[in-house]
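ingest -> validate -> predict -> emit
validate: passed (alphabet ok, no gaps, 82 aa)
predict: started
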Amino acid sequence: MREQRNLSQRAVAEAAGVSAAALSRIEAGQTSPSVVTLEKLADGMGVSVAAFFLDTGERSDMKWKYFRLRVAQAYPYMAAVT
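emit:
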């Protein structure tokens, strides 16, 4: 999603108020974001939190699918809502 919008990790991190290192770890699947961090990232990217759980078919690379899987595993109740 970030790459589709031609946004760098640094730009999203700054807009969201999180560190670029934290965003990198989240995208790499090394850590799961908190709900607060998800909200910050969504705000920084101008999308709803639900957008992180939707499969729009626009993105097929494994990194994005892995990120979605990690978020869905961390917050299964969110995936059930969307």
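Residues 50 and 81 are 8 Å apart (CA to CA).
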